[in-house]
Amino acid sequence: MPISIDKIKELAKAYAPDTVQVRRHIHANPELSFEEYNTAAYVKQVLESYGVEAQPMANTGLVALIKGKNPEKKTIALRADMDALPIVEANEVAYKSKNEGVMHACGHDVHTASVLGTARILQELREEFEGTVKLVFQPGEEKFPGGASLMIKEGVLQNPAPASMIGQHVFPMLAAGKVGFRSGMYMASADEIYITVKGKGGHAAMPEMNIDPVLISAHLIVALQQIVSRHASPKMPTVLSFGKVEAKGATNVIPNEVKIEGTFRTMNEVWRKEAHQKIKKLAESLCESMGGSCDIDIKFGYPFLQNDPEVTGIARAAAEAYLGAENVVDLDLWMGAEDFAYYTQQVPACFYRLGTRNEAHGIISGVHTPTFDIDETALETGVGLMAWVALQELEG
Questions:
Q1: What number is the average pLDDT over the span 205-210?
Q2: Which residue in 94, 147, 311, 361 is deepest, having the highest Cβ count within 10 Å?
Q3: Per the database record, which ranges form the Peptidase M20 dimerisation domain (predicted)?
């Protein structure tokens, strides 16, 4: 007899208090990207208490298998990220960060606790489903080059190779109890741009004696916007933004150089590479035309994230059955970036959003803020839904 939704809901509810405690422990003991030694040790300990053996990967990552009946029939993967951010937590809660200046402000504590809760359910029911569930607990989602890329290099998508992969991420703009999906392209690639504009500094009262890198930089920042407005297709989401300009001169001093830092984001890998070349060519030619020069370095970051239509369709149908269609919403394109995108470039995958908002209780802060928190009822939803989605993907 197939496993019923009611059975999954019953287990998710029964284990909810434990899941909350796991989340609170992780939240109170955050670790920065690629430093998740204690977090990984804790996750391994929790998995072992469920009877699931975990193996280290990518230094502070873990991978584990839950084998059902006929385990070679099909494998699917579930992913959690474990790192925190360099933020001082402002919440006054019992589980407030004990590591000053480090905080789980992006919900990775929720992601890890949810996959652990899901693992507990699936391990208990392993004699009632066919196939294998691979659990991926990765480090460093928040820091380049992204823990996902390292996990892939070390073979996380092999032995056994998953037919599909599922990722779940908190979404503070959506009420707890609801989830969101989008098929196809969803999140942008993210590249970092570093430009040093070089001129000849001197006294600001004698501009004719100088080559002003501040003026060149002003022209350059404006001119580079035509990469988006006149070269990118209006049908292709593209963002070019500069958030840091450093000119160490003074009111009466023109500096020798100006440093500019920004980001380029889009959702097409061919256009992405073309844009890099256009940015470099325009920067170099404009600086030269004004008597200066520039050094430009574009760091290739995370790729764009694309949700496989078939896998996403199965996951969405599972969510509608589990939560009711009224609690499943459509997501818009999102120009933020996620290293889960590396997985989506390698294997059919679905990255969906878990609502965590509760306006009545003042839980409204966005991710990457000192006051981010969640309505912890979302954990029961996240655990149960992910378990149900996993079972439907195995059958799909």
A1: 97
A2: 147
A3: 194-287
